[in-house]
Amino acid sequence: MARLTLPAIVILGAGALETARRVQMLYAGSQVHALQGRAEADVSYPELRTHLCDLYARGTPIIALCAAGIVIRCVAPLLSNKGVEPPVLAVAEDGSAVVPLLGGLAGVNVMAREIAAELAVSPAITTSGELRFGTCVLNPPEGYALADIAQGKRFVSDLLAGESTRIEGEAPWLDDAQLPRSESARLAIRVTPHAWDGRDNELVIHPRSVVAAVTGAGVRSAANADLGVDFGSNADADTRSTADEAPSACSGSNEPTHSGVQIAALVREALDAHGLATLSLAALLASADHMADPALAEAAVSLNVPLRFAQPRPEDGEPPSNVLHAALRVPYQTLHDDADTGVALALAALAIDPNTIGRARGRLTVIGLGPGSADLMVPAARIALNEATDILGYETYVKMAGPLRADQRVHGTDNREEMQRARHAFELASTGRSVVMVSSGDPGVFAMAAAVLEALEEGGATNADWRAVQLAIVPGVSAAMATAAQAGAPLGHDFCMLSLSDNLKPWSIIERRLRHAAEADLVMAFYNPISRARPWQLDKALDIVREYRAAATKIVLGRDIGRPGSTLRTITLGELRSSDVDMRTMVIVGSSTTRGFANGVDGGEWVYTPRWYE
Fold first, then answer.
1. Cis peptide before 535, with omega less than 30 degrees from 0?
2. Residue 227: is its pLDDT beyond 50?
3. What global pTM score does this model have?
């Protein structure tokens, strides 16, 4: 079985770090998780039991470099369904032992062999069937699905008790298995797309060899689809709702369009009509004209298959089977072609790789890395990075996003090429690729989210492929938030964020906004406070602030917060000089109510702004 999620390599202390890094080399893009205060790694966690349970609950494979008993006691309360548990392994800190604990149906023994080979030891595999037969019969390879896990366990139990089996269908991964075989055996391993009929003498494995194409009445018209972006229109929510409810132009009738649940039901009915198992479905396919239709995405999730698209040509015939002709690159037979329901089924002789069927809907995810440390990156950003085919961003930030896989394309550019970078991202995503645009901090705070939306507004007006891209913006921890959290809560009341750079706006606007913010007694967070090209601007900004704030006003200076060598200082407005600040410093100027008190650590203090005014 293919691993869909990169493993978390969990250590307790620095003694396991060297072994963890060796294991990490096997799974490019994976991260080493270390207990806070014990070791410096990619991710820190405060408590082992909670962390392991959280990883397990999310389905993340776990490679724990500690005693097996510790891992067992941590995750034991969560154990229930063997069919859905992720791989869990215990590895000795010195690499002398590799013990697969859980996830036999998710490839844990495969991982154990991979890790053991890297560490030059023998894996402690105890699975009876795998030891006896040289393979896990219940863990077919990618592209195949076990019909019933309970029946499968009974089947293997019978084999271990001395029964023989025969193989019906194509199962090349079992060619070298030491299975007791006999052409006259009562038991049979049957590889077939047809539904299991419940016979207890069969182990049924379904090749994912069926593709369902949905067109016509099955999906709404692209002309009426809500693409999620309104280019130059002042239509309100009521207008958009009316468009959503419009009839499907593709169906040529006034019938209401189908929801994702209805589309999935139509596909299941077609499969049932031909005795095919839902697990034999390799992909849901639709015309590229409907790429932005959310009902199709909902249907694919319901059917638990990838969603792919193709653009039919006139010579491909009539819908819905014309989409199959345009998308499939392997010989197949059409089993079902119903223009009324808009569903067609194609059956291939062998399992089909969904990546060879048409193309996926492209994705562009704009993420923020946070201030720099991996443990302050939100999980959704790491997931997007792990799933990306292409990663774009300012070269420095792209490097911060690592470790990345060797198969991921990296497009690093200069920091001043924002619009070109955004357009390039849409060009890549519109071909079906999964693209991540990297920013530091939060992507919506003086970062790439605005440039991406500007590029979409301009280019999407005339480019339907750009409009069809699935766009998501994942928030991050901004530099202001990270600095404020280390200092205490200086942003505890009304505040504003201002960039002092005049590269993209005139200095006169900056001055006017500074004056208004200072007069309004807002706490202010200064981004881009100073540089070699504009050394005078911070002093000018401070002159304006001093017209409205007392010299005792609290100032927080956070340099490289979240990165190695970070520093945090608290001084007063009267003490602050431009020489205290550089381009990598976040400057937080307190309001008249911002206060501080000693925190008892190295002469430092907590700074906060109360949530009330006198």
1. no
2. no
3. 0.76
